[in-house]
Amino acid sequence: MTTSEAERTAATAGWREEIGRRLLAPPSEHSGRALWTSVGVTLLFSALMLPYAFDALGELDTARRRWAEGVGTAYISSYLLFVALGETRAWGVRLLMCALLLGLGGLLVALMGVKNAWVLVFALCVIGAFARTVTAAGAVVVVVAAVGLAAFLEDSLAGVMSELILLATVGVAMILFMQLVEANEQLRRARDRIAEFAVVEERERVARDLHDILGHSLTTITVKAGLVRRLLEDSGQEAIAGEAGEVERFARDALADVRATVSGYRSVTLAGELAAAASALRAVGISARLPHAVDDVDPQARQVFGYVVREAVTNAVRHSRAARVEVRIGRDWLVVEDDGPGAGAVRMGNGLRGLQERVAAQGGTLEAERPPGGGFAVRARVPAGSGRIGTAHGGPQ
Predict the structure, then answer these.
(1) What is the mean pLDDT of residues 264-288?
(2) CATH class of 270-381
């Protein structure tokens, strides 16, 4: 691939990503709880509207009713398919489903008559659940305007005013409902993060106290015991010097245990490293796109991923000259990517090599590369449920 082809490919990928980011929310922004709550509300509304649908179909002639039943079946199937595919990362699929739902709904209204435009409520509800606010609001405006125009052309605008009000109010209500549910979900995530940070902070405080108070006292005891032992040995009191040596040995063992305990309390956590990364990037003026929570990550993989975040973000701050750093996570994978102007082959420094060894010790892989669009990316993957995770100690060199 030539340089110009690579640049065009990168530009196309960036354009597609920007459209998906602006039009359709990624899975991380609409939680499963919010999605299934909205689906449940929509299904309840569907059950309440079934008698009206049967009455509307009964008013049609045989041929038109058969067409309406076929289109209606496809409309409902598309709705259920959208529910199944709505959380996919492929924004193009979701955009296609939005267009398909609106198209089938519009065709069904054309067959059943504009007075039955309420059937478009289902499309607006599911679009409101799976699309960004701007897309959902645009769908509401387009549907209301199209139905109003059709009614105006048929000179029946007054007769369908209730349907127009229904479509507008239900569409807006679904958008507001999704925002409310998502706001509650974000509050829950924030509460969980605050609780986790509080635990980390308390562990750090206990570690400092152990190190500063108990560690200092044990060090003093060890030094004094050694001094007493040497004085007794010089004075020829070998038996008593032996007992003093035992005291010195016990004090050294206790000091080693305290240091090991402190080291354990200061263990790396993914949530803590993400918080530290946000502070570090903000301090140097680098824009950060970080996960809101680590709930979806395998608990046994969080520590090693914390080391990956620490090393990759540290490298970005020191060497990348980047304007943006993004961290993406999954159950068994993590990606840290920046948009720095680096060029040429990737060189694995001591830090990345040590990190690669740490990840490999957990049965995983770590790769560093320069994406086609530029920048630098570190990708780590650790098998979910690996029993070896968390056995290694220390940080990347």
Answers:
(1) 79
(2) alpha beta
